[in-house]
Amino acid sequence: MPSLPQLSFKALLPTIFSFISFILIVLLMAIGSSPTWPPFALISIDTTVLKDAYYTATGAGIPIHDAYSLHLQTTCESYLFETPKSRRFVGLQCLEKGTDVKFEPLTLIQDDLTTHFSRQTVQSLRIPAAIQEIFKKKYNIVLHIAFIFYIFAITSTGIGVLLGGAVLFDVTLPGKADVLGLGNAALSTLLLFVASVMATVIQSNATSLINAVGASIGISAFHGSGFMALTWCSCVASLLAPLSSSFTRQHHNGKIGIIEGQIVYRRKVSW
């Protein structure tokens, strides 16, 4: 049975890391956009304190949802069931998935009020307009750009997996295949890094802003760690692909150098 060539071993680790990165991006795109996985939302706006305060003051309820969440490809509304140790989303309702999500929480709240024929409005409830304006002017655009970067990243990573698989199975490739593979791996890492930074900025800055301007009326923001864990782990796995390629290449070349040195030494001795 013929043995696999040395080149196949050099491609093993990079291909594994590229495949891991590819799977993580697929999960990110699927779970991060799925309403059935609320903890993977980028950010959620909590109105429960506002509703409780209004009920205490007036004895009446406000017909709005407890949470309004932003996902990678959709926005959702839900109620919250909280215990001292956990927070669970119930009665989830989401808009149809799309590639250009526009998160406008005040519009969603006003739609709830209008649907239930409430006399209250977002203005009468004194919900700060800044909560919506920051998304309309900045973060909706940033999220759309990040989504495009994720699409390019998953394509580039998929190409990397195919190139690695071709080398593993000793498929004949053009002479510049190594350079192409390294460049593709670097591109995948760059795309994922930029997309991850954008998503992190949206999550961190939007949460801080909403908590700052909404605290006085009982509006707050929170987020889980699932989305960030997936995006940054995929970025790290993508980075390890070219690094492991360089390591295995140096290790392989070092072995060849030792073997060649031994051959030269033996020749000198035989003379």
Automatic annotation (TrEMBL):
Domain of life, per lineage: Eukaryota
Alphabetical keyword list: Membrane, Transmembrane, Transmembrane helix
UniProt GO BP: fungal-type cell wall organization
Keyword check for Secreted: no
GO cellular component, one term: cell cortex of cell tip
Keyword Transmembrane helix listed: yes
Alphabetical list of InterPro entries matching this protein: SUR7/Rim9-like_fungi, SUR7_domain
Transmembrane domains' residue ranges: 12-31, 141-169, 181-202, 209-232
Name by which UniProt lists this protein: Actin cortical patch SUR7/pH-response regulator PalI
Organism: Cadophora malorum
